Amino acid sequence: MILDIKDLCVSAAGKEIVKGVNLKIKEGEFHVIMGPNGCGKTTLAKAIMGHPGVKVTKGDIVVDKQSILGLSPDKRARLGLFLQFQNPVEIEGVGFVNFLRAAKESQTNNTADIKEFMGEIRGYTEKLAITNGIIGRSLNHGFSGGEKKKAEVLQMAILKPKLAVLDEPDSGLDIDAVKAVAKNINEIAKKEKMGLLVITHYNRILSYMDPQFIHVMVDGKIVADGGKELVHKLEKDGYDSFVKAQNDKK
Amino acid sequence: MPFEEFVEKIDQKDGRDEEKLLADYSKIVSENLGIKFDYVVGSTRNISNGRNDFVKIVEIGDLTEEHLRGKMFKNTDDKAVAFVHAYSRKIIFIDVPDGKDVDLNILFANTDTPLVSQVLIKTGRESTLNLFEWFGSKAGSASLSAVMHEIKIGSYGKAEINLVHNEDANTQVLGFSKGSVADNGHLKINYVYNGGVNSRIKNEIRTEGYGAKSNVIEIVMGSGDQKFDLSTRITNVGKDTISDLESKAVLTDKTVCLLKGFAKIEDTASGSRSFVNERGILLDKRAYISSIPGMSIDNSNVKATHSSATAPVDEELLFYLMARGIDAKSAQKLLVSGFFSNSIAKIGSALVKSAIVSLMNEKINTKRFGDIPKIDISSIWFDPKAIAAQGMFEGHHKYRDG
User: Looking at the DSSP assignment, which residues form a beta bridge with residue A60?
Assistant: First the structure.
């Protein structure tokens, strides 16, 4: 899968948030977008997945040469896109496994073998050190912040998308959990030759990952591209120089 | 309700062989839902599938004063009550003796001839009754399904009564219940309103004896032009009694639903608890719900609360499910199942649960009602831990620990 974001402008609640982003992600590539709070990272992620609350005002999102702007979120997911939510919603009464099975079956158009399916889920709950029995609970209901993030990675592992957008996969996690989540994301992405776009403020999770492309986003635009050296620069200097440069341009 | 419209029909001698229609209808319901009915009750005929010593169906002409001792409704209660008294052709007596356990499934099937029934239930001391009643109709023209329940639960007796209304779009539904629970008795009534063009329902359950409990669940699933008017009153009379009313409605199209739950705690009901909880989901902008929970408390040593909330399906929840590849309709089905799941889980009988879930899935998938769906429990999930932990008050800010 090739995801091609072309000169994308996105508004939310009548305010322009993303102001002309260009980004191309190919199969197996690992990209990271870093940026200060409110720069438009999450809005970009929502636009990729087709959130009804954001509006693409200019540009295009293209998957394998086809625009996906007219597609509903479920159709985008069935193409192979996946969004790991920054704040996953809680849905009481909808069982985690029941939901995941419905998601898997909608993507494969096959009825999942429940024994095999449960075995796969159990395998990942062990790997991710999910201890509190989330399998038998309502979807994200009463989960801790860390459990929610792990449950999102578990979903990614089971659904095996072609390209995953991970919106702050490390927020709310303790050090051990960050390591476990990073390790599993690496393994799953490598195994499935998955394209990855990780959105984060901090370099913390990136110390356990090996991204190829780093992009810095400020005020709705990608203002710098580079490799992992950019992460070290940000760690040292912060976003100030990028924000200042962007303000000077205005 | 234009009663006069039905009077003529009721008075007409029904010349058709209703018994065959009843048999055919009950066969489909039994096959599709996997439920065997002990009795099938029609307007002019009844079918008994096996003998049950605790049930009697008595034609009006054969009634004696003895039969009518358990009656709780009076003609002066309501115009429609007087109508049911005047035009019901039979009374079904269910009398569970002390210490007996009885399971009973009754199918009420309505054809063009209006079906007006009275059901009198009496359970003895330390007895148990599990009763399932399915109300269905296949009416070619305007018809009526009217039923009146009068229920007396004996001391230490337990009863779970499940009433499922799945009449077709030509049928008007009238329902009345009165119930009383004696010392340490427990009455659970689960009402499901899925069918009928207009439903007018009036229920009153009184926990009279010391330590008596009642749990009332109302589930409304509306589509098309259906209208539901539900007035339910729960009354704590005895000391240390518990009364709980939970009403949930999911409406689409131009459905209208009025939920009027009212809890009364009398001055004699010291140490009692009472909770009225009304919830609604609107799947269409044209659907309308009016939820009016009320309370009147005459004793200060009680715990009581009421709550109400109605909203469209949360777009964020829908987006989350769709972002995992689940199409909008299936996502909506999951959300509705989740909304009802904790209520349905409280129903004891697995068969009744399956029947209700199947109706719910049919309603969401096709918006139709009155048909008999095949068992389909694909979307439902119950969380046993959450249900076990869920009391009447745990979710309410007033009574949260700490």
Answer: A6
Indicate yes or no: CB of B323 within 8 angstroms of CB of A99: no
Q: Which of A98, A99, A106 faces B327 most closely, judged by CB atoms?
A: A106
The backbone torsions φ and ψ at residue A129, rounded to the nearest 5 degrees and listed phi first, read 55, 45
Q: What is the mean pLDDT of chain B?
A: 89
Percentage of residues in chain B having pLDDT higher than 70 = 91
Q: Which residues contact A44 (CB under 8 A, 6 or more apart)?
A: A5, A8, A10, A18, A21, A33, A199, A217
Interface test with B, best of A79, A81, A86, A94 (most B CBs within 10 A): A94
Residues B320-345 pLDDT 10s: 999 999 999 999 989 999 999 989 98
Q: What is the rounded CA–CA span in Å between residue A85 and residue A51?
A: 12
Per-residue confidence (pLDDT) for residue B153, from 0 to 100 = 97
Q: State ipTM.
A: 0.96
In this complex, which of A89, A95, A107 lies closest to B325 when CB atoms are compared? A107
Q: Is the pLDDT of residue B262 over 70?
A: yes
A43 neighbors A8 (Cβ within 8 angstroms): no
CB contact under 8 A, A103 and B326: yes
Give how many domains chain A has, as a whole number. Answer: 1
* Contacts with B379 from chain A: Cβ below 8 Å: 98, 102
Strand-by-strand arrangement of the A30-34 sheet: A81-84, A163-167, A195-200, A30-34, A213-218, A221-226
To 10 degrees, the CA torsion angle through A166, A171, A177, A181?
A: 10
Nearest CB to A106; choose among B325, B335, B340: B325
What is the β-pairing status of strands B55-59 and B90-96?
Answer: antiparallel
CATH of the domain at A87: 3.40.50.300
Tens of pLDDT along B189-216? 999 999 999 999 999 999 999 999 999 9
Spacing of C-alpha B233 from chain mean position: 14
User: Helix, strand or coil for residue B282?
Assistant: strand
Model confidence at A12: pLDDT above 80: yes
Q: What is the pTM of this model?
A: 0.89
Disruptive mutation site among B381, B382, B385, B394 for chain A (greatest number of A CBs within 10 Å) = B381
Residue A36 clears pLDDT 50, i.e. is over it: yes
Of A177, A117, A118, A119, nearest to A153 by C-alpha is A177
Range of the domain at A49: 3-249
Mean pLDDT across the stretch A86-104?
A: 92
Predicted pLDDT of residue B47: 87
Q: Residue B116 has which token pair?
A: 């007006």
